[in-house]
């Protein structure tokens, strides 16, 4: 079947940098054949459809650092690339109070079609990019995944400007938190507003199972909701990411036990 667009975009970069950027929820696009999943067009301007500001931030950081990046090109309302294939929330029936008619009911054939057509190709692109950088340098790359979150949840304001999510590998996460806090004007969350230990998610699949140093950075959406905010945060983050990339100890393969439980070594990586 001819797709309307690729489920992922890979931005080329210097593989010698040893850094890979990921954006699981970069875009809010859907194939026209899904007719908006029965949702109003306004739903696709909300966080339920994508991570606001992250496409622009990822592109700008990739440009400034000269590093490769992989972005998903479909809305997480279609299927969530930051979930394992066996996660029951892979295709959401309700998201932040919005019922998704096109996802319920859903046949097993359609569920598998979305995995094979969108979810799996994205992860294959992530795997290829990480492996290409590792093959070029002969060392493990550092993987930095970019996300954004809403300023408030259920009426409660979120005080963090940004947050770092991680499971049990502290090598990139803790230095990243320290460097962000050293900026002096930021409130930084440590596994807030979400816990970074999620079995089967992108960081688990491509980094935890392979012993690759990594961190997931969340930036509050209102801070990167326009070009000015994106540029300001790229200016902040680019030198910090570059410093992480210069740490030799972060380019070693070292596998930590996950807080989610034992690994299934027959399913790791891809």
TrEMBL record:
What Pfam families does the entry give? FGase (PF05013)
| InterPro entries noted in UniProt | N-FG_amidohydro, UCP029730
Q: What is the protein named?
A: N-formylglutamate amidohydrolase
């Amino acid at each position: 079947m001819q797709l309307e667009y690729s489920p992922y975009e890979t931005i080329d970069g210097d593989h010698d940098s040893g850094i890979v950027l990921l954006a699981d929820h970069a875009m809010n696009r859907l194939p026209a054949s899904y007719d908006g999943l029965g949702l109003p067009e306004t739903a696709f301007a909300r966080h339920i459809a994508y991570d606001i500001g992250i496409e622009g931030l990822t592109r700008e950081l990739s440009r400034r650092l000269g590093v490769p990046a992989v972005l998903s090109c479909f809305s997480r309302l279609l299927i969530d690339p930051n979930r394992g294939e066996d996660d029951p929330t892979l295709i959401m029936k309700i998201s932040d109070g919005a019922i998704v008619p096109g996802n319920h009911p859903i046949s097993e054939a359609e569920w598998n079609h979305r995995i094979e057509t969108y979810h799996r190709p994205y992860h294959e692109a992530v795997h290829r990019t990480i492996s290409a950088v590792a093959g070029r340098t002969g060392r493990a790359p550092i993987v930095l995944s970019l996300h954004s979150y809403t300023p408030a949840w259920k009426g409660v304001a979120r005080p963090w400007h940004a947050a770092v999510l991680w499971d049990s590998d502290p090598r990139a996460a803790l230095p990243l938190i320290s460097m962000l806090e050293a900026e002096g004007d930021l409130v930084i969350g440590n596994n807030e507003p979400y816990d970074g230990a999620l079995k089967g998610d992108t960081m688990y699949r491509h980094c935890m199972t392979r012993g690759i140093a990594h961190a997931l950075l969340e930036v509050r959406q209102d801070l990167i909701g326009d070009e000015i905010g994106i540029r300001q945060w790229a200016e902040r983050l680019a030198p910090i990411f570059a410093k992480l990339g210069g740490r030799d100890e972060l380019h070693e393969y070292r596998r930590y036990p996950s807080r989610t439980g034992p690994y299934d070594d027959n399913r790791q990586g891809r």
